[in-house]
Amino acid sequence: MNVAEPSLTRAVVLLSGGLDSSTLLHYVCRRLGVGEVHALSYFYGQKHSRELDMAKWQAAAAGAAEHMVIDLGFFAGLTAGGSALTDPDIPVPDMQAVREEDREQPPTYVPNRNMILLSLAAAFAESRGIADVFYGAQAQDEYGYWDCTAEFLRRINRVLSLNRRRPVTIHAPFIAMRKADELRLGRELGVDYAHTWTCYRGATVPCGTCPACAERRAAFRELGIPDPLAT
Amino acid sequence: MNVAEPSLTRAVVLLSGGLDSSTLLHYVCRRLGVGEVHALSYFYGQKHSRELDMAKWQAAAAGAAEHMVIDLGFFAGLTAGGSALTDPDIPVPDMQAVREEDREQPPTYVPNRNMILLSLAAAFAESRGIADVFYGAQAQDEYGYWDCTAEFLRRINRVLSLNRRRPVTIHAPFIAMRKADELRLGRELGVDYAHTWTCYRGATVPCGTCPACAERRAAFRELGIPDPLAT
Predict the structure, then answer these.
(1) Residue A178 in contact with residue A141, Cβ under 8 Å?
(2) How far, rounded to the nearest angstrom, does the alpha carbon of residue B108 sit from its chain's CA centroid?
(3) Above 60 in pLDDT, residue A4?
(4) pLDDT tens-digit profile of B75-105?
(5) Across chain B, how many H-helices and E-strands are there?
(6) What is this model's ipTM?
(7) If DSSP states are collapsed to H, E and C, what string results for A101-160?
(8) Are A109 and A93 in contact (CB under 8 A)?
(9) What's the gap between Cα A91 and its chain centre?
(10) In angstroms, rounded to a whole number, what is the distance separating the alpha carbons of residues B85 and B210?
(11) What SS3 state is found at B37?
(12) Which residues of A lie closer than 8 Å to B, measured between beta carbons?
């Protein structure tokens, strides 16, 4: 657990509305007992922007002091042709169709997205005089993104530590955890997973076969409980 | 000179429309002979958004293949109360009124702006299959920003180097140069400084007294030439 302050009173939580970040939000509020939580979400042109409705619901459920959704509407143009998550011409693949050689950087990778989102979160925190940001990176079971690793986070924090007046630290308490373990934790915390969204495809019900769905389903299966979204 | 490739054919240049980045653009095109330059500018709520008109002019003058202006209109809200450059309630100070204790992080500092802008530039480059980004950080004569230093850039590049498929490197060839030396170089390259904008205040003529104007004027004075904007 890489939480700097045992008695943290204010924090920023990056909240996508998915399983990881929703669990994290409740973890920060309830387990860490942080009294003033500012949740931050992004619209970056993701096909599954439905997750933002879930983020809003979770922020209210957790009693967040603030929930800001930043519109990065330019993102799809900036990274045109860059990702299956944002480009209508690049279909989201099924998990089983992701080729072995693509596992290191799959088509659902969005160019440099996490560095951008963490940079914005640090600015958001710094402006509010908040020193701690939480984000829900977890150990990827099936494939990895270079910008979800512990080394990536360590290097981001090395940049932010140069700030002379108000350095911000980014924490990822789940970075070594598997999704099933997060789910177990979230259920202890009373997280309502009916109000989370995971599927990368833009439909109103989860496809069940994209990489994100496949990971989520495996976690529920491992715990032997039904996914409320899969019924 | 920290240019990785002696025979660079494609590059991204961060172009604010100020003296530093305009000089850099022409340096990359003419001195380095990069044939395909993609210029990138940002509107982040700066009072001196007039600089973007100058960026457009310079991109055309340099024969850039593309000039994209990204609207980060949310920025002032994200960093509310954070900077004299974006907040209407915080006046831009005169250079001589910047207190000694503020020189390390003056009121014109925008929270984490440079990390955000460089992260976006890296995404922009990566999406286009371009490996090299140039930005116009220079040795600050009068005061320093933590996010303009060589160490900051080194650490940003340490993050980006983790990208397995398409790592991007950010170069700041002027980072150890004084503004007067940049100006001397720019004049050799034929840069037209009448089409650059420096003043932090939002007026139609430079105030002459804000920190940015003070630095610019000192550079022209040192070379013993008139600033075309000051006439």
Answers:
(1) yes
(2) 14
(3) no
(4) 877 877 667 777 777 777 777 766 665 666 6
(5) 7, 5
(6) 0.89
(7) HHCCCCCCCCCCHHHHHHHHHHHHHHHCCCCEEECCCCCCCCCCCHHHCHHHHHHHHHHH
(8) no
(9) 21
(10) 11
(11) strand
(12) 68, 70-72, 74, 77-82, 104-105, 111-113, 115-116, 119-120, 122-124, 126-127, 146-147, 149, 151-152, 155-156, 158-160, 162-166, 168
DSSP letters spanning B83-97: -TTT-TTSPPPPGGG
Q: What is the pLDDT of residue A99?
A: 63
Q: Any idea which of A135-149, B108-122, B209-223 has the lowest mean pLDDT?
A: A135-149
- Chain A residues within an 8 Å CB radius of B119: 112, 115-116, 119
Query: pTM of the full predicted structure?
Result: 0.90
Tokens matching residue A164: 């002379």
Residues in Cβ contact with A212 at an 8 Å cutoff, skipping those fewer than 6 apart: A18, A108, A198, A199, A200
Tell me the sheet residues that pair with A133: A12, A170
Nearest to B80 among A104, A127, A147 (CB): A127
Share of chain A above pLDDT 70, in %: 89
Q: How far apart are CA B23 and CA B149, in angstroms?
A: 19
Bridge partners, residue A66, by sequence: A38
**Whole-angstrom distance between the N-terminal and C-terminal Cα of chain A?**
34
- B135, B14 contact by CB (below 8 A): yes
Confidence of residue B46 (pLDDT cuts 50, 70, 90): confident
User: For residues B30 and B189, is the Cβ–Cβ distance under 8 A?
Assistant: yes
- For residue A145, the chain B residues in CB contact (below 8 A) are none
β strands within chain B, DSSP E: 10-14, 36-43, 66-71, 132-134, 169-171
Mean pLDDT of A39-56: 89
Letter for the amino acid at B198? T
- CB distance A90 to A83 below 8 Å: yes
| Distance between CA atoms of residues B92 and B211, nearest Å | 9
Chain A neighbors of B72, CB-CB under 8 A: 74
Length of chain B: 231
The C-alpha atoms of residue A61 and residue B87 are separated, in whole angstroms, by 32
Beta bridge partners of B43: B71
pLDDT for the residue numbered B82: 64
Measured distance between the N- and C-terminal CA atoms of chain B, rounded to whole angstroms: 34
Q: List CB contacts of B100: < 8 A, sequence separation 6 or more.
A: none
